[in-house]
């Protein structure tokens, strides 16, 4: 077991390191624990070496290296060890347990002094890192495909990413089934609309003058309702698609109404 500069204990942990936030990060054979929160290794979709999300390093020091990972549900987390070399040890332990996540790492600098802890007021402001990867781009395109290739694009992205890019696959699956639901509702509306229109036309051809006037009203009203309903469905679908795309490009979890279980 490797222990961080603070000597934080973690019997059974592969690597344990003190963080600049004052918390502790530990890599276990089946999970990663940071600041008292457990992240199952099987649910980690991406991990990398990044710069400390704090806006500035201490004077005269390069940006602190940090560990960042994204969970399959879209959560993005980063942690900055007080002792910089621990960043490489953490990632190496993580990549050993999850070799499918491994990516090339730059060599650690020859000399790195320990970084001081964050000021008491500083860390919360930097808790939301600003990074996207290819998964967020694909997920965003799946939602935006309501404007183009509404069924084909998310289906292809779902099938391509299933099993290797959980976030992109899950968001593409949501988009695909939402687009299917929109198409089904539109088909039902079209069927009802045509039934009303044709029934009204038949009544106008074979009815008396009074009934003919009533049928004419149904005919005109049916056309307005038909086109109005299709327009409303399209607007709602586009609004939800844009909202989903915005959240996906940020790497945030998103579920369409009534589809949270997918």
Features:
262 residues; five-stranded mixed sheet; three-stranded antiparallel sheet; PH-domain like; 2 domains; single chain; 5 helices; elongated; alpha+beta; 14% strand
Describe the protein's architecture and organization:
By secondary structure, the chain is an alpha+beta fold. The protein has 2 domains: 2-131, PH-domain like (Roll), CATH 2.30.29; 135-249. The protein has helices at 85-97, 134-144, 152-161, 166-206, 209-249, and strands spanning 2-3, 15-18, 24-27, 31-34, 37-40, 44-51, 65-71, 76-79. A 5-stranded mixed sheet has the order 1-2-3-4-5, covered by helices on one side. It has a 3-stranded antiparallel sheet with strand order 6-7-8, covered by helices on one side. Strand 4 (31-34) and strand 5 (37-40) form a beta hairpin. It is elongated and about 95 Å long. The protein starts with a strand and ends in a 13-residue tail after the last helix. Mean pLDDT is 77; it is low at 1-10 and 120-132.
């Amino acid at each position: 077991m490797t222990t961080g500069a603070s000597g934080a204990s973690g019997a059974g942990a592969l690597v344990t390191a003190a963080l600049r936030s004052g918390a502790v990060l530990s890599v276990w054979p089946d999970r990663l624990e940071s600041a008292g929160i457990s992240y199952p290794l099987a649910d980690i979709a991406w991990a990398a070496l990044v710069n400390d999300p704090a806006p500035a390093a201490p004077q005269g020091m390069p940006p602190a290296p940090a560990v960042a990972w994204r969970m399959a549900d879209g959560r993005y987390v980063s942690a900055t060890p007080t002792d910089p070399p621990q960043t490489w040890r953490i990632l190496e332990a993580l990549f050993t347990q999850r070799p499918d996540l491994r990516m090339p790492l730059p060599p650690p600098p020859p000399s790195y002094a320990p970084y001081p802890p964050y000021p008491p007021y500083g860390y919360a402001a930097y808790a939301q890192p600003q990074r996207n990867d290819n998964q967020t781009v694909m997920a965003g395109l799946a939602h935006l495909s309501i404007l183009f290739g509404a069924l084909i694009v998310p289906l292809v992205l779902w099938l391509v990413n299933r099993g290797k890019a959980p976030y992109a696959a899950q968001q593409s699956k949501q988009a695909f089934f939402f687009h299917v639901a929109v198409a089904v509702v539109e088909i039902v509306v079209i069927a009802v609309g045509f039934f009303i229109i044709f029934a009204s036309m038949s009544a106008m051809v074979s009815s008396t003058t009074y009934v003919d006037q009533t049928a004419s009203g149904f005919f005109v009203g049916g056309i307005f309702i038909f086109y109005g309903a299709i327009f409303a469905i399209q607007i709602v679908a586009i609004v939800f698609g844009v909202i989903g795309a915005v959240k996906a490009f940020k790497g945030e979890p998103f579920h369409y109404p009534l589809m949270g279980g997918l």
